Amino acid sequence: MSTEHVETSLASQETQVPEENHSTPEILEGEKEMVTVFSDPVNFNVKHPLHSQWTMWYDNPGKKANQASWSQNLKEVITFDTVEDFWGIYNNVVRPSDLSPGSNYHLFKAGIKPMWEDSSNANGGKWVVQLPKKTGEHINTLWLYIMLECIGEGFQYENEVCGGVVSIRKGFYRISLWTRISDDKEICESIGRHLKNTLSLNPNQMIEFQSHADAAKSGSCNKDLYTV
Q1: What is the chain's pLDDT, residue by residue, as a tens digit (228 residues)?
Q2: For residues 190 and 173, is the Cβ–Cβ distance under 8 A?
Q3: DSSP secondary structure string for all residues of 135-184
């Protein structure tokens, strides 16, 4: 399921009528009419399950945070597993553009912490897209695209995707997509190209992939394994 189909494909599911019966099903007395989020975003009573559970995290550790203090500031916001719950969360959290510098939102598959040390991340890395501050409120749309692509599991190698991060800094924004692996060039570059398409980046704009192992050794991400 791709990002662009997260809503439309689900909407088509609810409106699709079996070929052998083109009439509208009769609602029997005492039965509730099925109302989806697509027809009533407030009073819906039907939910559409996602393939996986996802957890949203938040942190703002401050300028002088070390690894220990950073992990203490990492807060689990909520875990969800339906389309409707996702939109309920999205519509009720502060937008990235309104967060203070130093803040990060993390959206990861449930059971995976957004930390290098997590067993699902230990051998992986991340694609990094740095955007100028003049991106402004458009960062909110880009972050939404990444979240939809993740929960819709639209990547060709979706099982290798752990989650995404949006980081707010004083002079720039940064979006990262974390993967389980870092040593398979073909898979990593496929995910990177998909990320560029998701964000509608200029084909000439290069983005870099950095391994968590290198970052852990150097204390920063300054060695690029791949570019697309």
Answers
A1: 544 544 444 344 343 433 444 444 454 455 568 887 677 777 778 789 999 999 999 999 765 555 556 677 899 999 999 999 999 999 999 999 999 999 999 999 999 999 999 999 999 999 999 999 999 999 999 999 999 999 999 999 999 999 999 999 999 999 999 999 999 999 999 999 999 999 999 989 999 999 998 877 765 555 678 999
A2: no
A3: GTTHHHHHHHHHHHHHHTT-STTGGGEEEEEEEE-SSEEEEEEEES-SS-
DSSP assigned state of 111: T
Helix (H, G, I), strand (E, B) or coil at 74: coil
Where b means 16+ CB within 10 Å and e means fewer, 184-209 reads: eeebbbbbbebbbebbebeeeeebbb
Q: Which amino acid is at 57?
A: W
H or E stretch covering 151: helix 138-151
